[in-house]
Structure formats: C-alpha cells, structure tokens
Amino acid sequence: MFAAASTVAGDLANFDPDAPMVPPDLDHIDITGPLIQRSRAFAERDAPDLAGPEGSLRRRSARAPPIAPPACSPPATRPMTATCCLASPSLPPTSSPDAPRNPPRTGSRRRGHPVPSGAHRPLAALAAPASPGASRPIARSRGTSVSAPTMPAVAVHPGTPHSLHLTELPRPEPGPGQVLVRVKRVGVCGTDREIIEGDFGTPPPGERELVLGHEALGEIAAVGPDVAGWTIGDLVVDTVRRPGPCAACQSGQSDMCSDLEYTEYGIIGRHGYMTELFVEEPDHLVRVPADLEAVGILTEPLSVVEKALQQANLIQRRISTWNPKTALVLGAGPIGLLGTLLLRSRGMDVVTVARRSAPNAPSRLIAGAGARYASVRETTLADIAAELPPIDLIFDAAGNAALVFEAMRVLGNNGVIVLLSITAGPEVEPAPLNLIVREFVLGNKVAVGSVNSSKEHFELAVDDLALFERLWPGLVGQAITRRLNGFADWRRINDREPDGIKTVIEVG
Ligand code: BGC
Fold it and tell me: Could you read off the pLDDT of 299-316 as tens digits, one per residue?
C-alpha cells in the first residue's frame, strides 16, 4: 500500500500500541462546525455506506445540556472504601490528606512516587481469594467486633511494582440520593498497566491500597431514597474524574483541571471498579442501552477520543474554511482503534499507523471500517504522507515521542495534532526542531494535549457505539480480544496478549 521505507526514522523501541491514554471535556459550546458539515458531504459523496439513513453525521453536541457545576466536594472516597484495607498497621499510608493528591506522572518507574519502605508484601500473603459475601470482623471500640459483609476487589500498592493482589471491601449500601451499581465488567488499559508496574496511581487518603479499574460497565442493583428515574437492571457507565478546587473543576470542567487536584476512580485517590458493587450519585452515571451491553465497556476509552475530536473542532473554529478530509492515527491500541472508527464514522479518509506488521487483529479491524493500516516497520510517516493529500488531523495514541515529532512534520498546513498518549522511555532528540517550529508557525499548525473526558463525552461515546454497530455490525466488539474472570484470573490482568487489543475483566 505504501512505499517501503529505506530507513525508519525515530526510536520506536517504546512505541507501544497499548500505551496509556489521557483524555478531557467541554460541555457547553456548540461545536457544530465545518468538520461536521464537511464530514456529512464527504460521507455522502465518497462513502455512502457510512451515512446512515437517519443521518449519522448529525450535530454532535447540541443535544447535550450544559453540565451543572458540581458542588465543591472534599476528596471523599466512596462509602465502600471507608474501612477498606488488609494492610499491615505498621505500614504507613502512601498518601495523607495533606500530600499532593496527584503526583507527577513521569512514565519512568517510580520517579515521582514515594514508595514507603517495606510497602511490598509477598503476593502469597494476600492471595487467598475472598469469597463473595464473606464477612470480616471490623474492630470496634472497647475490643468488641461485629462481622460486616465484604466483597472481593483487585488492588495494588501504588508505587510498588507488581503488587497486584486480592483484597476486601465492605459491601456498600446506597444512601439517600445514591444508587447501588453491580459491576458487570471492567476494561484494562495502559493506565492500569502503568499502575500495576508501580509507575502511577495514588491510594485514597489515609490508605495504602488502591482498587484498580476505571472503565466499568454495571447495572443498577438498588435505588436509594430520594432517587427517581432509575430502575434496577438499567445499564450504566460511571464517569472517572471528580473535581478538585481549581476554577476549571468548579465550573464543571474537571477534565480541564489546572492544578491536578482532581481524583479519579481506580487511578488517583479513589478506589476503582474491580470489585462487585459501588454506590454512586446518579448524576455521574451515563445510561447504556441494553442492546449495547456487549460493547458498552468501551464507552470510557471512546469518551477520551470524543473529547479529542471535540477539542480539534473547537480549535479549528479559528479557520472559516476548515474542511478536513484526511487523518492519521498513531497507534492501534484501543484508543487508536476507537479514534480510527470515530473519524471513519465522520467520513474521513484515515490511515492508522502502528508498529506491528499486518495482518494482525488491529489491522483487520481497521480494514473493516474502511481505513488503511501501515506498519512503521515497513514505511515511514514521511512516505505515508507523500501518498496522501494534506493531512488535516492527527490523533497520537502511540506513546512514542519521536513519532509525535515525525507526525508534526507531516501535518498539513492549518492542521491539528491531538496528543493523547503518555510517552515514556529514554529521552529522544527529535530533529529537526528548527524546521518543525518554523513549519508550525508558517503553517498555522496546532498541537494540543487532551486528557480525560466529561459526562458529555461519555454520552457522545454511547451514541457513537450505537452508530458503529449500525455502520459495521459486530466490528467494534472485535477490539475486545481477551476476557478474564476477575476474581479467578486476576494474576493475568497485566499479561501481554501477543495479537491482543483490549482485555476485559468479567466481574458479575
Ligand atoms: C483515563 C482517563 C484519565 C487518565 C489519567 C486514562 O487512562 O482514561 O480518564 O484521566 O488515564 O489518569
């Protein structure tokens, strides 16, 4: 498809298609713009199979109402976490209410993570699986104890590599204004792998364990007092981030947090979903239609890409003639694949670039959506770009900084590159920097980072999962290449799957 390269530029040693992604959100701006208008025209003209009967390329954001600014909340953990811990009392907590909640994410093992001495305990000491519904004594004053029902959970000691273990959490009950959610499955992403490797993650204040999992599909199991509109059995996905004190967070844009004092389920300061149940305020939940049960677990990673596209659209309102046709996606892990499908669903011509040679699971999925796959083992971005019209939009989901700078060179004038991956590994010296900067200036190019996602992006993701299923029945589900039984297979969560894309933990 693409001419073979004489050389492969850049250091691809750390080009990890499963690299962790970071996402964002804007919720009250009408982004209907030339991309959408152009996409509709493009889809109808060049890809009629992509334009659904009901107009799949509809206004994306107009229907979503502004999100009310959340009340300023303390960095509370969910009720279920209150007494969670099998930690030895002699070990200090890895965080305190005064410690910075969100240490710098360096991508380099344990840099920026204070690891308490002696924090690592042998897995054997923690390996006995807790049986669902088991009870454990909760110490009470005056030496008496009662048994409270508990549930198993998969946790780590943040900062300690490979400290994955089973623990127990108290079974939660929904209070007023809350619902109880039964976890059905949890997705594993690059961020979870980073946490397991000890490179990232922060336990809830005062604790030393962090229950993993920030991508979950669940169903309503009970409805607390003063909650209307929710029924037992409703499928839901929970949004990941909760606001900190900064102005962006307090105005409802925690995905644009400026002081990094936010919390995130299963990542920063809040236990995640690799357990059986959690309680939540329904405002944070997004409904998933029953017919998307099989793919609803992809809502959170797709929400990250929805934000990326929205960011590009918002930025490009600076150009009245913005009419993008050609896109490059770097990386063929879950984020790269979902980005490929999203851009294809908008009618763009997409080339997705990854390291592995085709054929493989991602290349088949990409072809199924009418996009093209190229391996940087066999060609270079420069050679790819030479065969394409000007590249209007690039999503980086590859985790390789050198590749990002190569991509900056092939980005077309007036184009946008959205950086979604956390790059790591040895520092690189991308060349030629003078040329890259000059071309960015002369070409009015934009590079933007994008992390996390808001409720609006989760809602867009649910809509687009439905759209993907209409456009390419069964295709997006092929991104789930491995299913593990959570409380039996937890040791395998971080195993690499040779030709895999997405691992999902079946919980209930
Ligand atoms: C999650 C985001 C989160 C980010 C940084 C990603 O894997 O999808 O929601 O903001 O990690 O913690």
Answer: 999 999 999 999 999 999
Amino acid identity of 28?
H
The count of other CB atoms within 10 Å of the CB of residue 223 is 18
Q: Is the pLDDT of residue 107 over 60?
A: no
Domain range annotation of the chain: 90-299+482-506
What are the beta bridge partners of residue 416? 393, 446
pTM, 2 dp:
0.77
CA-proximal residue: ligand 1, atom 5 (nearest): 22
Distance separating alpha carbons of residues 58 and 384, to the nearest angstrom: 31
d(CA 199, CA 195): 6
* DSSP, res 19: -
Q: Which CATH architecture has domain 90-299+482-506?
A: Alpha-Beta Complex (3.90)
CB-defined site of ligand 1, < 6 Å: 20-23, 189, 191, 214, 240-241, 264, 267, 300, 304, 451-452
Give me ligand 1 centre to Cα 502, in Å.
Answer: 16
Q: Which of 191, 192, 303 to mutate to test the pocket of ligand 1 (most atoms within 8 A of CB)?
A: 191
* Residue with CA at minimum distance from ligand 1 atom 3: 452
Q: Which residue has the tokens 């499963």?
A: 18
Per-residue burial over 185-209, b = 16 or more CB atoms within 10 Å of its CB, e = otherwise? bbbbbbbbbbbbbbbbbbbbbebbb
Please give the Cα distance from 8 to 403 (Å, whole number): 10
